[in-house]
Amino acid sequence: MNDQETVLELIKMFGDDILPVYPLPKAYCPGGPANVKAIYLGCDPTNKHSELLPFAFAHESGLKVFNSFLKAHTEQLKQIGLGWEEVYTQNLCRNYFTNETSKNPVWAKAANEFWIKILNEELSQFDLRIPVLLTSQILLEVLGLGGSEKFLAHDLYECRIGIPIPSYMNKLNRSLFLIYRGKSPKFDVSYHLKNEKWKEYKNVIIPYFK
User: Fold this and answer.
1) pTM above the 0.90 mark?
2) I need a labelling partner for 197 at 20 to 30 A (CA). Which of 52, 80, 85, 161 fits?
3) In the chain, where are the structural domains located?
4) In Å, how far are 37, 74, 148, 159, 187 from 34, measured between CA atoms?
5) How far is CA 55 from the centre of its chain?
6) CA–CA separation, 98 vs 16, rounded Å?
7) Cβ pair 20, 118 in contact under 8 A
8) In the prediction, which pLDDT does 40 show?
């Protein structure tokens, strides 16, 4: 399906929760598939600024409103020795929704019933040993299997649960790593890897990307 057909199909399935706009943002992979060491996965391109974006994560949009957003993600990757040229950046749900992810009543349904299959097909160009970096807890909640969908971020960040989440415990059949930016409700500190509190977690995952 092309982007227009995709959006029309989503509207048929999920109604007014889908914005009737396209084209959809493309995956961002400036270094080319051969240089990819990880898949950098977001939720969807929906944003409160009502801006249509050329690429996932607002890459090459030229809009200053997204500068701090992109800077934060750039710093996250840098913490584990990666840059944008070494990741394949994509959203699980590629369409725009009426509501942002945290306030979206159909996001999980759209992910499960439509987008996960498509994402798996898209990622088939990469060896299954290429891991996925999850940028939000909601991604784990829909992708996890065998109980991993209920893993709490702080337990993983404190290395109380084996890292990475193995391929047989998720719907992408790839190793999963958490690389969140939000704040831990338990510790009231950011999950950003520049935080000294997560030094052990960072040191555990860095070797996977060398």
Assistant:
1) yes
2) 85
3) 3-209
4) 9, 20, 30, 31, 39
5) 13
6) 7
7) no
8) 98
